[in-house]
Amino acid sequence: MFQWFDNWFAKKCKQAWENYCVVEDSQPPGLTAINSTILHQRGMNFTIYQANGGYVIVYSKYDERTDKHYQALHIISNDQELGQGIAHIITYEMLKQ
């Protein structure tokens, strides 16, 4: 009676799985391309806003263990070098883990 639903559900599950991990033929054997959504969840993300007197850096990360998104604000003043300030933020956030 609900065979159409089972077929539809199986098809959608297969599509979701294929979108989750995409393997491209142009890559060397053993490498897998991962959907950018997954990379976004697993990596460190920074958004830089220019402000009066410096920059505001928003650091965000997804914690898979707790299934929560974490955000932190950092300020880099104009008297600091931007690249060095970002390096300090990355180091600080990595040490917190």
Describe this structure in words.
The protein has 97 residues and is an alpha+beta fold. It folds into 2 domains: 1-42, no CATH class; 43-97, no CATH class. It is built from 3 helices and 5 strands; from the N terminus they run H-E-E-H-E-E-E-H. It has helices spanning 3-20, 36-42, 82-96, and strands at residues 21-22, 33-34, 45-51, 54-63, 68-77. The strands form 2 sheets. A 3-stranded antiparallel sheet has the order 3-4-5. A two-stranded antiparallel ribbon has the order 1-2. A hairpin with a 4-residue loop joins strand 4 and strand 5 (68-77). The termini are far apart. The mean pLDDT is 77.
Brief account:
By secondary structure, the chain is an alpha+beta fold.
Offer a few descriptive terms.
two-stranded antiparallel sheet; alpha+beta; elongated; 5 strands; single chain
Write the layout of secondary structure elements.
Elements: H1 3-20, E1 21-22, E2 33-34, H2 36-42, E3 45-51, E4 54-63, E5 68-77, H3 82-96
Antiparallel strand pairs: 1-2, 3-4, 4-5
In the predicted model, the low-confidence regions spanning at least 5 consecutive residues are none
Kindly give the count of domains: 2
Percent of residues in helices comes to 40-55%
Count of DSSP-assigned helices:
3
Q: What distance lies between the first and last C-alpha atoms, to the nearest angstrom?
A: 51 Å
Q: Which value, in Å, is the CA radius of gyration?
A: 20 Å
User: How do the strands of the widest beta sheet line up side by side?
Assistant: 3-4-5
Q: Class by helix and strand content?
A: alpha+beta
Q: Name the beta content range.
A: 25-35%
Described by the principal axes of the CA atoms, the overall outline is elongated
Q: Give the biggest sheet.
A: 3 strands, antiparallel
User: How many runs of DSSP E, i.e. beta strands?
Assistant: 5
The averaged pLDDT comes out at 77
Element order, helices and strands? HEEHEEEH
